[in-house]
Amino acid sequence: MQTKMLASVNCVEEALTVLECGVDIIDLKNPSQGALGALPLDLVKDIVKAIDGQGIISATIGDLPMEVDVVKKGTEDMISTGVDIVKIGFFGTENHVECIRALKPYADQGIKLVAVLFAENGSVVDLVPEFVAAGFYGVMVDTAVKNGLTLTDHYSHDDITEFVTAAKKHDLLVGLAGSIKLHHVKLLKPYAPSYLGFRGALCDNHQRTSTLNVDKVKEIVKEMTIDYQFEA
């Protein structure tokens, strides 16, 4: 399966722009509110209405503490907007299993839940069986701290291979992100993840809180069509 492209956007205009550019997954996020900052629910609903089924929409529930009631409420709120995929960040190292299991009823209803794990915390493959048991749709790895370090600064070749392999073994959607840029496409596509996620690389000056740059979006869309393989 061809690796798809996810682009994070923060308004209706940006969502329509990446749709027109041919991005596969339109990801709704507020970069000014953290790694997985959530957009206001009314704005998410406006974007869902504007896209009108023409593209896949995911949305983050925010940089929330790992407290069962808080995570469940954030998930329920985002489900109510009508997005296709709800992304939940698993911050820190505590209460992950409790939160995963608490979200199982939503997955049982057919809601597509994607867990976002963070490379700064090291290997996360031990949690994959828990996500499978809870019925999650997918998992992805990102960076929690946006300080210029990227996924490949935190994860080695073996780390990425282990993560992608563990997810695919259980037929989970698997994403790679974390301040990745144009040149990372050549490095990461050979792992054959389900998608690569971008925000800063699509913006002026590579600043994730800056304005989306259409030329940068098109450049990465084009780069994603190249069938890169590991160099011998």
Question: Tags for this entry?
Answer:
TIM Barrel; 17% strand; 37% helix; globular; alpha/beta; single chain; 232 residues
What does this 3D model show about the protein?
This protein has a single domain, classed as TIM Barrel, CATH 3.20.20. The chain is an alpha/beta fold and 232 residues long. The chain has helices at 12-21, 41-51, 68-79, 96-102, 104-108, 128-133, 151-154, 157-169, 182-188, 214-223, and strands at residues 4-9, 25-28, 56-60, 85-89, 112-118, 138-142, 173-176, 195-198. An 8-stranded parallel beta barrel has the order 1-2-3-4-5-6-7-8, surrounded by 4 helices.
In short:
This protein has 232 residues and is of the alpha/beta class. It contains 10 helices and 8 strands.
Low-confidence stretches: none
- Helical content, roughly? 25-40%
What is the 3D form?
A: globular
Radius of gyration, in angstroms, nearest whole number: 16 Å
Oligomeric state, counting identical vs distinct chains: single chain
Q: Provide the domain count.
A: 1
The share of residues in extended strands comes to 15-25%
CATH architecture: Alpha-Beta Barrel
Class inferred from helices and paired strands: alpha/beta
Query: Helix-strand pattern, N to C?
Result: EHEHEHEHHEHEHHEHEH
Tell me the CATH superfamily: Aldolase class I
Number of beta strands: 8
Number of helices: 10
Described by strand count, sense and barrel closure, the largest sheet is: 8 strands, parallel, barrel
Roughly what is the average pLDDT, rounded to an integer? Answer: 95
Rounded to the nearest angstrom, the distance between the terminal CA atoms is 22 Å
CATH class: Alpha Beta
Q: What would the CATH topology be?
A: TIM Barrel
The strand line-up of the biggest sheet is 1-2-3-4-5-6-7-8
